[in-house]
């Protein structure tokens, strides 16, 4: 399946990409650990079937020093021993916040998240999850393919 459309080649798409990049930069500057952010981005992207975003967040995580073994295990994180309790709380939140139901994130998952993250980090996680889910949907709708992402290539939209 070919890519349907180069969203970033349009004036509107480029403007939106710049805003997304600005939001991403604000989240990158938040007190949320970068690796936690990449794990959350990766898990949501896996659930949404976004090859482009999976490719991007694996490569960005490796560039940030993440162990590739842990990245291979993200989809089955509940059945591993390689994630901290805080990371597990964030991954559970990512799954429930991506697969929204009428109740959204359960009280149990929310309480567990709050045990591990302060207000600033929780705000970052909520915004991060909303942003990655929006990005996943745009990329899947336009059939953006994974495999060609180069670390930092979206920095052009940050200025």
UniProtKB/TrEMBL annotation:
Gene3D superfamilies: AhpD-like. The keyword Iron-sulfur does not apply. Residues 16-96 form the Carboxymuconolactone decarboxylase-like domain. Keywords: Oxidoreductase, Peroxidase. It comes from the Bacteria. SUPFAM superfamilies: AhpD-like. Pfam families: CMD (PF02627). GO terms for molecular function: peroxiredoxin activity. InterPro entries: AhpD-like, AhpD_core, CMD-like. PANTHER family: 4-CARBOXYMUCONOLACTONE DECARBOXYLASE FAMILY PROTEIN (AFU_ORTHOLOGUE AFUA_6G11590), BLL7811 PROTEIN. This is AhpD family alkylhydroperoxidase. It comes from Lentzea atacamensis.
